[in-house]
Amino acid sequence: MTAVTRAFGAAILVAIVGSIAGCGPATEPSAAFDNVVLVTIDTLRADHLGAYGYPRPVSPFIDSLAAEGARFERAIASSSHTAPSHTSIFTAQHPARHGVLFNGVRLEPDIPTLASTFRDAGFETAAFVSVRFLRGSARGFDIRNFHSKAGFRPAGRTVDRALEWLGDREGESGFLLWVHFFDVHSSNSKARPPADLLEEMRQDSRQRGEELERLLVNDQGIPTDFLAQEEQRFEGMGNLERFDRYDAQIASVDRELRRLFEGLESSTQDSRTLWVVTADHGEGLGSHRYIGHGRHLYTEQIRVPLIVYSGDGQIEPRTVEQRVQHVDLFPTIAELAGVALGPDGLELEGRSLVPLLDGVASDSAEPAFAQRRPADNLRLRGGWPDELVLVAEAERFKYILHSVGEDELYDLVADPLELDNLIGNGRPEEQQLAEWLARKYQWMVEHPLTGSLDEVQIESEYVEELEALGYLN
């Protein structure tokens, strides 16, 4: 019997106190910014950006934002799947509460979101999104511009739409703008990156050669034998072709993000704009012998980049080492924009990161929580276990609960690649994290913001698109 099995037998009866769910600010905050731009880059591993130590020239613009703003070293997504993770960003709730467990599911209309809160506070709200199936997560946006066909819209066209909207705006009200890019996700599909960027990455691979291979093996956990098989998988294109395509798509998004930034800055010269750049989740790329995302909750799939920047210097350059979560973004952005969360406090899972942006560390942060999406028939046929998978990640140790099979415990300091499972070794952190996870999940399922999670269904209008993107068969 694992620690978590014992914990579910007893700890779920422990009363849940205030540390389980945070609350928004009780008083109305003062506005530091007039506008907010939230950028989400689908499927972007943090360790493939220069700002996070990657040596390849894939992200010069994002790296510049990180150098001049706040870079969060350990930001954890609520899920390794697109729609659940985005919905957690917008609601400051984890999937077990907001009910969007997989792509194509609609968020219940009465659940407050970042966008609806900003709209009610008098901000214009606009979303320019490269896929259609995220419409169900985009509650509260007045302008909702989504890709209208099966597949995805390339970053350049999404930026075009956003810049057109910015150019047509009238009035002086502030705005909340969400821009979503899907290109990096497409690196495993037939969609090719821009030819010039792909060739640049291939040339870089030829120059770096063994140096890059060592980094992928030693720093990113790509097994040596897995890497050796890549040339065969890509029909003689070389054993780094998968990484060339992935990195070229990152470079493509980086280039388009710079264009968005320059266009917005030129049109809002007298306004104070906050930029928040993150990803919904990471990508396997062969780490833990897995290509893709969604099945696991290892670091390469739930650690995401998080960069907060302002051109006027209000966000001072710093690296934040303390672990944070996607659910923290809603209260953080609201506080910085001077948007009160209402008299009821909007019971949020997240906490404001403004103290961390000011260099004030907190000793009271609870573990990060993450939840795997359920396995559908397509994934069951692909070998996924039909199980509940949850994560509790503290400062040093990470516990992964499996309702089927053995749980996992990792020492992230001694074993950052999560290769040495310490479960059953008698460490006190095993019992502590297991009990916390049991209480946390029990509280969430007893306090859902939607109906029964067993009744969650994909909206029929998204089926064709999800099939084209490889999510459904």
Question: Which terms would index this structure?
Answer:
Alkaline Phosphatase, subunit A; disordered C terminus; eight-stranded mixed β-sheet; alpha/beta; disordered N terminus; four-stranded antiparallel β-sheet; globular
How would you characterize this protein structure?
The chain is of the alpha/beta class. The protein has one domain: Alkaline Phosphatase, subunit A (3-Layer(aba) Sandwich), CATH 3.40.720. It has 17 helices and 15 strands. It has helices spanning 3-10, 60-68, 82-91, 95-98, 114-120, 155-168, 195-208, 210-218, 224-228, 230-233, 241-267, 299-302, 329-336, 354-357, 377-381, 428-446, 463-468; strands at 35-41, 70-72, 75-76, 124-129, 143-146, 175-181, 273-279, 303-304, 306-310, 318-320, 324-325, 368-371, 389-393, 397-402, 408-411. The strands form 3 sheets. Strands 5-4-6-1-7-9-2-10 form an 8-stranded mixed beta sheet, sandwiched between helices. Strand 14 and strand 15 (408-411) form a beta hairpin. Helix 1 (3-10) packs across helix 16. It is globular, with a radius of gyration of 21 Å. The two termini are 37 Å apart.
